[in-house]
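> forwarded from #structure-qc
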């Protein structure tokens, strides 16, 4: 199996490394060519100069930032990949974008899986991501050897778009947990409780969760090195808001989180971790519109 990888950011670069460790990676590409050339040299694979460099790949993995980037890459790959190849997209985009990509590639006999991931940069580096997959089961069977290089769990959620639908639910939970943990720890800080005692005590009980365990101590120490940037969660939640409106649910977590992360971005904290939300919680300012 020959695998290509496009999008070598904080998530993509370590995923490409896991594929190379399995002997699967053959070529890497990135909008910034220098980044692709540097990683290619480190991993001893080829750096793509254009779409045709992926023409021999059985699988191409995308890990890019926006809907337009996904569709741009899919259109380019549709013209060069051989029939029965599969494109796997780990980006977080709209369901409609995933379905459009699936339809475009299907015309050429090429498979497409919308396969967003959860687990953050740590999960990417450690090869322990949860991957939620939408698309054809046969295409997932082809892709599984590559996905297993960095997955803790791979779940086929249904047809095209089901992976992105699952990621939308995931991001609502991520945002809501961040709201609760940041608000609770801000209260604990204001009440003068010891961070060293508070976080492990809470983590051992019913309030325990991944975000508290991984971010509780760091946010109380004022360390907001990103595992997942606030601006990216805001981008994701804007997509989720549209889905929630169509589903006609009460979306208070989504709306409050969009307002809060927009505020963080205005204050210049968009590149900080989502736990930077505690900055606002400590001010007592309500950003609800």
């Amino acid at each position: 199996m020959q695998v290509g990888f496009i999008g070598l950011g904080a998530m993509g670069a370590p995923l490409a490394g896991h594929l190379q460790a399995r002997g699967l990676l053959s070529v890497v590409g990135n909008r910034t060519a220098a980044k692709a050339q540097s990683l290619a040299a480190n991993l001893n694979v080829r750096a793509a100069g254009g779409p045709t460099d992926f023409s021999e790949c059985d699988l191409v993995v995308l890990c890019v930032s926006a809907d337009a980037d996904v569709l741009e890459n899919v259109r380019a790959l549709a013209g060069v990949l051989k029939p029965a190849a599969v494109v796997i997209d780990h980006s977080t985009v709209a369901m409609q974008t995933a379905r459009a990509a699936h339809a475009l590639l299907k015309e050429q006999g090429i498979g497409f899986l919308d396969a967003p991931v959860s687990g953050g940069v740590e999960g990417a580096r450690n090869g322990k991501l949860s991957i939620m997959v939408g698309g054809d089961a046969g295409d997932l069977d082809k892709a599984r050897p590559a996905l297993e290089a960095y997955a803790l769990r791979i779940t086929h959620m249904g047809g095209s778009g089901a992976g992105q639908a699952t990621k939308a639910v995931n991001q609502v939970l991520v945002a809501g947990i961040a709201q609760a943990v940041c608000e609770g720890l801000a209260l604990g800080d204001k009440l003068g409780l010891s961070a060293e005692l508070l976080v492990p005590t809470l983590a051992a009980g019913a309030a325990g969760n991944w975000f508290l365990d991984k971010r509780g101590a760091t946010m109380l120490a004022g360390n907001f090195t990103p595992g997942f940037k606030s601006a990216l969660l805001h981008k994701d939640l804007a997509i989720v808001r549209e889905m929630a409106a169509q589903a006609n649910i009460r979306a208070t977590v989504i709306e409050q989180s969009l307002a809060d992360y927009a505020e963080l971005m205005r204050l210049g904290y968009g590149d900080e971790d989502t736990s930077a939300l505690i900055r606002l919680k400590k001010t007592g300012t309500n950003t609800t519109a």
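QC bot note: The first strand starts at residue 3 and ends at 6. The two ends are 51 Å apart (CA to CA).
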